[in-house]
Design a protein that fits this description.
Chains A, B, C, D, E: Keywords: Cell membrane, Ion transport, Membrane, Transmembrane, Transmembrane helix, Transport. Five copies of one chain form a homopentamer. By secondary structure, chain A is mostly helical. Chain A contains ten helices and no strands. Chain A has one domain. Chain A is 72% helix and 0% strand. The relative contact order of chain A is 0.18. At the A-B interface, helix 2, helix 6, helix 7 and helix 8 of A face helix 2, helix 7, helix 8, helix 9 and helix 10 of B.
């Protein structure tokens, strides 16, 4: 996630970090080059491209904006839902902490176990969503025995939630907490499980592939045909105009690609490291640890 | 569901698996053929089609993009809601597993019964949503007596949930679990029932038929009239331009048709087999089974 | 609800059942007739209509598509929410059945009473949403005494839910079920009450009347002015083009009218009879009745 | 709320009650008058306005339709959410009644107290949302002592909910109902509190003022410039065309203004009186009162 | 938040407080100035800019309206969600008050503690969302010991919720309230925690930076190119037309920037002070305090 203030008027045009331009510059140059060739040919043979009128571009343009707009909305919704799910992880985690503190006390084994499992769950989920090996982080938090069962588990984050569930059931059977209070804990676990399933849904199920193909193909075709339609009227300005159109369309397209996978590590991905660290600091503080690890800082305006 | 990375620039135009083109090529060719005839006639009798100006196409085009855009949004929402419901099935199922493990233990009859019913429910729901006979799969999981009642049941998945409910009530009457803990189980069953009803809603209630008729008819009329409007200005380029417009419109239309039924077995259907297998592996692991069945692999980039 | 597969290419243009055309044919013919008159006058007095350019139609057209698009979305949302509410009725009803089976048993008076009240509730709600007298159906399910109180009730479906609530409270006071289990039942009743209130909301509160007026008036004015704008350019093709525009706009308008009242008995209304029968069959089966009434069949592709 | 059937074809153009025209007729006439002046000047001095081409109107028109469409959607969402909240008030109120009946009985002091508080809450909330003094209505329902505390309260509806809460807590302390059943009541109170907060949110927080300014200013500028752009092409038809565009845009704008405040007493406000009376009749019936007050009738097709 | 009635026709054009114009006047003037230069050059050298036709502006304009429309919707949703979250804070707070009153009584230490923590939570959350130091306000409400733990806490509002949770657990352990009633309190705390996480989500996660860049860049490019496209047709009217387009686009853009951060202190920020004071007055009244602090008044039509 890029974190920087709104740049001033002139700076706006020279901002590089966080811009989508570096990734669409090849397409823009390609389109501008093609336009230049078309202009050159047109100047040589003026009667060659007079017949393409711009109405048909309008029709394809309507379809294209329909596609790009839809895809952009769908991708942004995925991104924002990803952020919402991690926000939910945070407050469900905090509620679990609060319950642990209230019914066990900060120094109790119950609370310590909850804190460790919660952090292991969060680290594990984040690493899986980023295609990284979660076990090194998990080992920081769990005992060797617990790590072993988590490592073998088909669904590692869920196995960690099971560890909390088993601990709660044990406390109930010991009479330390009653089954009504256990329901408070249980509802937090169900919610954390829902967060995990939501994240996996976004992670595993991209926008249907055929959309991507349709959008890209129509986008390329449109930008490649555009100079033929504009050259008769716009002459030497054609490469500039087509380059701007290409920037507007390919830029949005590339941005949508990024937002489609909100957990990826790039300029527009969510700052899962920062969120995890936030929760970690809160967790460790309830255990009385001191000093706490520092918050994650942004690097080149980027927070991961 | 098609699972493949974003193809490179040139590959983009030659991707076949996952593309919608094979299914709209007849319409595109038909429109291109008609265009060619119109161009030929226009070259022979130039004064025949001069009078259709493109403004009226703009007006129909606005209506058409309104329809296609609406239908596309509605169908994508159905598809994504279908995925959301199966994600909910997963985490409610996992919560049921966790409760079974916590309050019964992995080797208990209660837990084993829950696992078997959960898998039978999932297999049964998936097969019904795909118009397949669910009983072979159900028989893998349930006892002969249970299978018999499920087979006769008007609503088979719900009958399986009733089996879990009866088991829970039995445990309560035996005093093995108290009624507060039983509410934890009960809420999972209500949620699974909601998942089933949501899936059946999407499965049984298509977008109103009249929409489909309106969209298709206006789409065909538009594409068939377009060459008459373009030929005076665009001349020999008319077939190419109308073919591109036809590709853009029919492609979106066909894609919407697919997404309308998210549980169908096709390129854009949800990967219910893979999701079911995921849950199955997690279920079997809690029973200590080894080795587990492998995850479902994609075939020709397609995951069912 | 129309239930039929996607027709083939040629069949598409001749489908009659489920099409919106029969209801908008008067408007289309009126517009086509007016166009023909305009063309005839134009051929006689060519200098009469040259001055209307099409730009102003574009401006009205943008406003019109804004209206039609908005209204279409709002009406479809009402229709889909109606379906969603009935899906909720189904699964809340099933959960009530499951609770009755689990805590009373299939042959208990409690379960029989729940089944009868649930079916009476469903039939009563459906008939009220269709402006039909619900009492004949209610009498099939309830005792004469209960029917009397339901008949006199200001809010009949809610009175039926009160009957269930009173029965549950009675069981609690007898000690047959505890108050925790009673909460399971109570939450289903609240949810059924929410379903009823949601259905009544859609039934009693149409889209604001002024929208309908605005949309219709602008739609008619637009279609009546269109031939004057097109005749100079499109000549003899004007009646055809205006008829197509009229079909696209009036068709969507009429379809929106249908979807606005999703519980009505027409081609696009929800199949409440079929949904009710589905629940009835499941209810009766839990009572061990045999044979069950058959599912509702579609007639002329229509399911009510 | 206007309640009337869809008028026939001719009647459609002469409907007055419920139409938005009376409120936008000044703007329409102003625009038509300006257009006439422009036409007159243009006929006198044809060379004065030739240079404004319509393309720039298209660009402003796109922005304007973006604004009007957005504002219309946002306002309709507020209106529909207002109706949804009152639907929720109804079913939460009914659930409270049902609980009172079930656990107290229709003649109990508990139930009578709940009924009175519920009606006082509903009347009080409605009157506050309509800027009316709620105390006369509240005095109909509550004892003098309760009225006094409600009258002094900063938040009157919430004070009434507190009265119910205190009564429930009293019943629990007396042992008349257990704390599990009290949770059933408590959850209804939380929900009623949510309804109140939702209504106050809509009531107190209009769409940001700057939107209204932007929309109005651009709308006026657009309609005032339009005749200059159209006069060269459309000549004498200019006043008619601009009047239609003004009707379409100002009509939608005025309608949005109405829907923004769904609780106001006007043609498009929600029928809160009718909804309150509906609940009142149900409440009084559970107390065995006879005869009940009649339902609210519409007056000049309007239901308040 | 600007709170003022709809201004009359003429006043509409001279409203200053609440208007977005003061902030976009530099851009508008810049564009108008550029336009004037272009007009001047065009009058001198008429053959210099004839070749840019307006079609390409239409294509960029479609993309631009797509961007601005999307961003506007996304920002308004954030703003409205912010308001919704604070409405939720209010009713969850009120429910906590009602519970405290019911189960402790207005004079009890439990209730007083809840009131103080609730107000400290609200003040603390508001100040953090506005980048202000929350401790002065928190000190008004909490004891020195509690303040110390809050001051050191990584997450201050959450620490305050923990204080309530610990108090509730203490009451349970003393037997003053049972664990079922404690669940009523606990659910309010979870909800308040969700409100906090939601506010932090909106506060910490802006719309992706790349959108802002894309929108701004395309918006500037568009407005800077527009005079070249319009000058051939519109002549001397070009600066006026481009200034209006710039006002429409930059105005919406600036408004979106405001709504993106709904908790900021500006014309379009939410009136968090007023909402906090509302809750404060309700809280203090339940403690019997008199006189209450007055409601927050608007200043220059602005409520903070």
């Amino acid at each position: 996630m890029i974190v920087r203030g709104k740049p001033g008027f002139l700076a706006l045009f020279f901002v590089y970090h966080g811009s989508i331009i570096p990734r669409v510059i090849p397409q823009i140059l390609l389109v501008a080059l093609l336009s230049s060739v078309v202009v050159w040919v047109h100047l040589k043979f003026p009667s060659l491209f007079p017949q393409l009128n711009t109405a048909s571009f309008g029709f394809i343009g309507i379809a294209l904006s329909l596609y790009l707009g839809f895809r952009n909305n769908a991708c942004y919704d995925r991104w924002w839902e990803g952020r919402r799910l991690w926000g939910q992880l945070l407050f469900e985690g905090r509620s679990l902490l609060r319950l642990g503190l209230s019914y066990g006390g900060g120094q109790s084994a119950l609370h310590r176990h909850i804190v460790q499992c919660l952090m292991a769950f969060t680290d594990c989920l984040r690493d899986q969503l980023r295609n990284q090996d979660p076990m090194p982080k998990v080992r920081r938090w769990l005992s060797a025995a617990d790590c072993a069962t988590v490592d073998q588990a088909v669904n590692r984050p869920d196995r960690i939630l099971q560890l909390i569930g088993e601990q709660i059931a044990l406390e109930v059977s010991k009479g330390a907490i009653d089954s009504v209070t256990a329901r408070n804990f249980e509802q937090r676990l169900v919610a954390l499980s829902a967060v995990q399933a939501g994240c996996e849904r976004i992670f595993n199920t991209p926008i249907p592939f055929a959309y991507m193909l349709l959008v890209h193909r129509v986008c390329y075709i449109y930008c490649f045909l555009l100079p033929f339609g504009l050259v008769a009227d716009s002459g030497l300005a054609t490469p500039l105009l087509t380059a701007i159109v290409a920037y507007a369309f390919f830029g949005l397209d590339e941005l949508s690609c990024d937002l489609e996978q909100p957990f990826a590590i790039n300029d527009n991905g969510l700052a899962l490291n920062a969120l995890t660290r936030t929760l970690e600091r809160e967790c460790l503080q309830t255990l009385g640890e001191h000093p706490l690890p520092p918050p994650v800082a942004s690097h080149n305006y980027r927070l991961n």
